[in-house]
Amino acid sequence: LRDTQMAAQEIVADTPGIPRHPVTGKDLWERGKPKILPLFNHLKAEGRLELQDAISIIRKAGALFQKEPNLLRLNDPITVCGDIHGQFYDLIRLLEAGGDPATTQYLFLGDYVDRGCFSCEVVFYLFALKLQYPKTLFMLRGNHECRHLSAFFNFKDECIYKYNELLYDEVMNAFDHLPLAATINKKFLCVHGGLSPDISVLKDIDLIDRHREVPRQGPFCDLLWSDPVPERDPNNSDDSDEEDVDEEIANTKWFTYNKSRQCSHVYGVEAVSAFLKKNKLTAIIRAHEAQPKGYKMMMINEKTGIPRVITIFSAPNYCDVYGNKAACLKFDNELLNIRQFVCSPHPYYLPNFMDVFSWSLPFVAEKVTNMLAGVINWSQDDDDLSDDDTMKDSSVEEKSDVLASRGLVLKDKVLAITKMLRMYKMLRTENELVSTLKGLTPDSKLPPGVLFGGKSSLEKAISTFQKARKADAPNERMPADGDTKSKISLRKDVVL
């Protein structure tokens, strides 16, 4: 026991505490720009910023974005990064793999917020890097950099939990000014989602009015939401797209409606080839879709062996359940290098910033169910039943039938309570796994029958990348109008 206590004391002593006070003044600012190292160390330790300092960083970065064109024209050497999704501690690993931002040019393809629990830290740190290196660090807009999705998912909740709604509004205003696309060496088009039937030449991108909320249709929407036609990896079936791909979509050569996203389009090889040829480009580099390896080469040109579409995803172990690797692309002297990395440990938050009372309800429910089981298991003896008015004038056979029917009813009740008891016990013992699985479903409810299958059934539901993606697929759709409030309330609801 003493050894255990000493070991616990050593662990506590080695674990740094969360900063009690925000980093401010000359410790944070120098010549109107945030100091990167103090800010990094403070955010890494889960420290908060003063609201006025956070807003100052956001507004200054937003002003820089506003001055940039819709289509950035960049050259190598450069590191290209995909989705981050609020995974701040994996962003740290990403910057280690991609190179020091002080000496490395960066292009981020969007989706900085939502799903993870550290979106505020991601925004503050990337915006601070933008202020420090405005000519070498660039950020594009993703489909989650809009009010519709960030309120539907958890970024707005996170801002309110850690700061207030004013900070959320300031971040959204800055996101309105993010550029939409970039070219590298005039050969590669970089964008979050992909092509649009309304964009035939690069000049069409420059003509878009981007300083606003993302619309639900049109070329602006397509750049952020569209996907290439899914195709199977012939070398590894585990890396293939979903098996139940719509036949119409699978055979698309040009454009068709994107059913999986409930908006925008899916673009095929002919659409990509025509666009690349017309604009004298080699390939499209995009993000927007989780990949087991962190990247995927698609629509390979049979003559040159060069992929026409490259998908890059930089959020490892997406949503803490996908188990995927992440990657970034490094361009140097027109050579493309892929750097892969795995996830990093991170502090734990209750799902969707749930309060402790809501989280503890399964524990309370189990005790209540135990009480119900005790009540149901109690039964009257035969003498008590004989005194019942309905039994006095009955024959022996009738009494037997009544007692048998009552026994069956009692048995059914006992079985029902036993099932409830088993279910709530599972909710208590596997609370974290249950919460994770509920977070992947569109209504925050578990698939039918999963709880009764026990722990193995819960683990099996998200045991592979494909199963996790299938469970998460409804969350990849554009929410319908009016879904935001109901989604937020359901994500906090523990009722199955």
TrEMBL record:
It holds the Pfam family Metallophos. Belongs to the PPP phosphatase family. Residues 140-145 form the Serine/threonine specific protein phosphatases domain. Keywords: Hydrolase. It catalyses: O-phospho-L-threonyl-[protein] + H2O = L-threonyl-[protein] + phosphate. Residues 469-486 have a biased composition (Basic and acidic residues). Its EC number is 3.1.3.16. Residues 225-245, 467-486 are annotated as: Disordered. Residues 236-245 have a biased composition (Acidic residues). GO terms for biological process: calcineurin-mediated signaling. This is Serine/threonine-protein phosphatase. One of its GO terms (molecular function) is calmodulin-dependent protein phosphatase activity. It is an enzyme of class 3 (hydrolase). InterPro entries: Calcineurin-like_PHP, Metallo-depent_PP-like, PP2B, Ser/Thr-sp_prot-phosphatase. SMART domains: PP2Ac.
